[in-house]
Fold this sequence. Notes:
By secondary structure, the protein is of the alpha+beta class. The chain is 45% helix and 31% strand.
Amino acid sequence: MPEDTALSERRVAARLSRVPGYRVTVFYTEPTYAAQRGIPLREYKGSFFLQMPDRGSAIARARHLFLDAERRSGVGWVREIVRVECEQVGR
């Protein structure tokens, strides 16, 4: 690896090591799916580990990633976020 690339990678790694990590858990339901199947509403969750400058940014990014995954899933039902939990990790 060229010296300037290695130096650049070390600088990025050093910067990232100073950015706090957060585990954001998005709890959601699928009311349309439950209604179509005639089953009780169930709560699901998706977790994201993110290195962001603060808690608010981590939550906003997790919501964006969750909604993006919902759009890409191609299912015909709606996922409704019911709550979000966020905890700082690794510090």
